[in-house]
Amino acid sequence: MHETSIDDDKLHEECGVFAIYGHEEAANLAYLGLYALQHRGQESAGIASSDGRQLICHKSMGHVADIFTPEVLAGLPGYMAIGHTRYSTSGDSKALNAQPFSVACNKGLIAVAHNGNITNAAELRRELEAEGSIFQASSDTEVILHLVAKSRERTLAGALREALLQLEGAFSLVFLAKDRIIVARDPHGFRPLAMGKMEISKHKIGYVFASETCAFDLVDAVYQSEVEPGEMVIVGPEGVSRE
After folding, report:
1. Is residue 98 a contact partner of residue 46, using CB atoms and an 8 Å limit?
2. The pLDDT of residue 106 is above 90
3. pTM of the model
């Protein structure tokens, strides 16, 4: 299906996102997932990983295979990770806009990667700046982080849910916290996001999410379902929650 550009300078509709939870080689598998999604974006790529204690992010301009050398991947420990490969857009090709974005805020250490276009991002950004928020990039994605940090909800899931209610447009999001992954899709389901499962051992299951199911093949994951329009899926120590 052909997708029409709303705002060429801000639109990242062809970007690829990937997330994995429950595998000790999460960053390596995120690399493979992004490699499979490389056709969705050749401008920049990034991976953020967590081992439950610290969250580490590496991103750069260029192709996935060039950025993520064995040495770089060795510096991304943990059993969960999110990744992003970015589509080149006119007038907006800057290292500052490479994703995932990672911050330390009142909700803890969090990282986010985003595929889509927030049509009211400029309006939200003006409101946030008027209240004292400071932005470093020109991407819509940073607006989402500010909304989450601003929320008075105590949990990341609650803050993200509140933030999503303020967004208009088309988006698939993958969030990484120190101990969980949260993914979400816009209410209209304009941007794709699939959920898969992988058997790590007889008693251990891993979960993966990706813009396209071709990313599941390289990590030996089995497609389960689409993330439903307007749905938020949380994978953490308590298990899987779909809301």
Report:
1. yes
2. no
3. 0.90
